[in-house]
Specification:
Among the domains are: 64 residues, Orthogonal Bundle (434 Repressor (Amino-terminal Domain)); 120 residues, Alpha Horseshoe (Serine Threonine Protein Phosphatase 5, Tetratricopeptide repeat), CATH 1.25.40.10. By secondary structure, the chain is mainly α. It is 77% helix and 0% strand. This is Helix-turn-helix domain-containing protein. It comes from Streptomyces ferrugineus. One of its GO terms (molecular function) is DNA binding. It holds the Pfam family TPR_12.
């Protein structure tokens, strides 16, 4: 139980502060309350309302929070200031430095019992883990942040970044269906409940695009991309504005103007969060590039994918950058630039693994197999196809598995290995799905755009 919930603790604090200042109970009470009320409060026999505590705090010359909790107000404000600094570091791409800062901040927030700040530090550590590809650790941080916010009765929009982070960590680990379930369930709850928070919806719609695409739900992916782009915040240079708010907050804090410093920090934190949303906007360019590629407009596809790659490289989001590179390599190959495509694929494969970008690792091996076939290197082609098959089976990407089995079967048949080819074809038939269909349920409720 916190001090705020304990009338006896607050009563003793009020009595001590009043005595320190040489005030009588009448002087503390007037004009809004009676001396008898102050006496009852100091004895711990009444739970003071927030209005009463604000009146008493003003008369005593202390902050409301300090009177209610016993913690000096500057502690939480200083912690929030340092949290925005850690957000800035992460937003500029230095995940390693951000981890060090968030770890220290988490320990301090734990020590003081600051729930909101604990959740912010855990969320930051989770985002650092995503950027670094440390998916298991990231998921634990997101789950912990969700629990902290739930225990604090935070509304659903406030919990969305942690929910979205958990879903993304499952998606990048190849657990597509569960990732979609988490994202769609949250979207449905927000939209049906009238909780149309633009930032929360943007994060969710942008994050569900990748899983939709990999599951073959192209129509849903396209719709989610349109929603995300419509919700995207418009800001000239949020980094500069956020830096200004941080500087102002430092000045206000030095002058003891805690509430104003808090307001300035809140603006800075929001802008840094928007900077992190650049990753999600890059995913929208990625989606557009995919759509153009499917429609045969390869020049525009390459331009969109290079834009996504540039945005992600600026964020130093290594795992996402590697995934976009695979899509770009496919477009380059189709444009006749197979050597450039192969070089790009070999460059990024070291950043991918079965537990870290499994689907794009499989796509890279598939494309390298096709390029090897074109070069008449059937042994290398088969090796790449088999590695891709193993990755896709683990992830359960049925549509891609069927296509890959066809490629492998054709290769084996042309090499005279008919029985092995038949086995590959049979495996593919077992995973055959109609283009663009999945076993997903009804689409979530739509936002009122």
């Amino acid at each position: 139980m916190s001090d705020r919930d304990d009338p006896g603790t607050i009563g003793r604090r009020v009595q001590q502060l009043r005595a320190d200042r040489g005030l009588t109970q009448r002087q503390l009470a007037e004009p809004a309350y009676t001396p008898a009320y102050i006496s009852t409060l100091e004895a711990g026999r009444v739970r003071a309302s927030d209005d009463a505590l604000r009146h008493i705090a003003e008369r005593l010359g202390v902050a409301f929070e300090e009177l209610a909790t016993g913690r000096p107000a500057h502690l939480v404000t200083d912690l929030r200031l340092r949290l925005t600094e850690a957000q800035r570091v992460l937003a500029t791409g230095d995940a390693e430095a951000a981890v060090a800062q968030y770890t220290v901040l988490l320990a301090e927030a734990d020590a003081h019992g600051f729930a909101e700040e604990r959740a912010a530090a855990l969320l930051g550590l989770g985002e650092c883990g995503i950027d670094a590809g440390e998916l298991t650790a990231a998921r634990r941080h997101f789950e912990h942040a969700e629990q902290v916010l739930a225990d604090a009765d935070a509304p659903l929009p406030a919990r969305v970044p942690a929910l979205r982070g958990r879903a993304v960590s499952h998606y990048l680990a190849g657990e597509l269906r569960y990732a979609v379930y988490l994202l769609e369930t949250t979207l449905d709850e927000l939209n049906r409940g009238g909780l149309h928070d633009p930032d929360a919806l943007l994060l969710l719609y942008a994050s569900v695009i990748g899983p939709y695409m990999d599951m073959g739900a192209h129509a849903r992916a396209a719709q989610a991309a349109e929603y995300a782009l419509a919700l995207a915040p418009q800001a000239g240079d949020p980094a500069l504005v956020a830096r200004m708010h941080r500087s102002v907050a430092r000045t206000l804090l030095a002058e003891g103007r805690i509430a104003e410093a808090d307001a300035s920090l809140a603006k800075a934190a929001e802008l840094y969060r928007h900077l992190q949303i650049r990753t999600e906007l890059a995913n929208c360019h990625w989606m557009r590039g995919y759509v153009y590629a499917q429609n045969g407009d390869l020049e525009r596809a390459e331009a969109e994918l290079r834009e996504a790659q540039t945005m992600l490289t600026a964020r130093r989001a290594a795992l996402y950058t590697s995934q976009v590179a695979v899509e770009l390599a496919d477009v380059l190959h189709r444009r006749g630039k197979s050597q450039e495509a192969a070089g790009l694929l070999h460059e990024v494969l070291s950043d991918l693994s079965p537990e870290r970008g499994a689907l794009h690792s499989a796509a890279a091996h598939r494309l390298l197999g096709i390029i090897a076939e074109d070069a008449r290197d059937t042994e290398a082609a088969e090796e790449h196809y088999v590695r891709a098959l193993s990755l896709l089976e683990r992830a359960g990407a049925a549509g891609d598995l069927a296509d890959l089995c066809r490629l492998l079967g054709d290769l084996l048949r042309r090499g005279g290995r008919v029985e092995a080819a038949l086995d590959a074809y049979r495996t593919g038939l077992g995973h055959r799905t109609a283009p663009g269909t999945t076993t997903l349920g009804p689409a979530p409720a739509q936002p009122p755009l």
